[in-house]
Amino acid sequence: MELVIFTLFGLVIGSFLNVLIYRLPIDEPITYPPSHCPQCHTPLKPQDLIPVLSWIRLRGRCAYCGEPIALRYPLVEILTTVSFAVAWLSFGSILTAIKMAVLFALLIAIAFIDLDHQIIPDVLVLSIFLWGLFWQIVMAPISWWQAAGGFLLGGGILFLTAVISRGGMGGGDIKLLAAAGFILGPVQTGIALFVSVLIGSVVGIVLIVKKIRKRKEYIPFGPFLALGIAVSVLWGQRLLSAYLRLIGW
To answer: pLDDT by residue (tens digit) across 208-224?
Structure first.
């Protein structure tokens, strides 16, 4: 029963993330005006705001102007719901599940904003850092030295990458991995970066081969960082153990 409640709460949070993803980059207040169609600006009624189900009922179109509603809306809601369920099932502590579920929600918002606008809002990165700082004060799941090490490693490596590549890495990416590193510690931060680069490289090569992107065309790295961080949170220790066994340590 607790899993169902927690998962349904994730569905509600996913609906809120859609508002955040749309409004935050254009500096529109999050709470006002009420939810409305971005095309015709008609205020939405309660029956239009049921996560996922409203999109299915309306067949992906606005009930008032008939314009398509992006598939991204139910996708964000489903992704957030799944992430909450995974957080609950992956950690023995309810508090840790809450901590990581909120982290996942912030990462989802960052990923989709970066995809849409090629920016990572500072307010979301700061939220991750402050969230980690709060739990570090309350529970101290890792030592303060580990938290500081993760922060410096995550921000430092990407900062050096930006310097060496002369702008090949965005400031938002640097700050994101630094903030997440404070939560992860140095080892899991390194795993997060490795996973991010690996997946980003594979996707980038596929996009270039398929001629979807040109070789020097910018590809947002935020979504890959977000995925790498999530993978490290959930399976980082297992991946490290498997790697050490592979090399005979």
So the answer is: 888 777 777 778 899 99
Quickly tell me which residue has 């996560």 as its tokens.
51
3-state secondary structure the chain: CHHHHHHHHHHHHHHHHHHHHHHHHHCCCCCCCCCECCCCCCECCHHHCCCCHHHHHCCCECCCCCCECCCHHHHHHHHHHHHHHHHHHHCCCHHHHHHHHHHHHHHHHHHHHHHHHCCCCHHHHHHHHHHHHHHHHHCCCCCHHHHHHHHHHHHHHHHHHHHHCCCCCCHHHHHHHHHHHHHHCHHHHHHHHHHHHHHHHHHHHHHHHCCCCCCCCCCCCHHHHHHHHHHHHHHHHHHHHHHHHHCCC
- How far apart, in whole angstroms, are the C-alpha atoms of residue 36 and residue 66? 13
Per-residue pLDDT tens digits for 26-40: 888 888 778 877 788
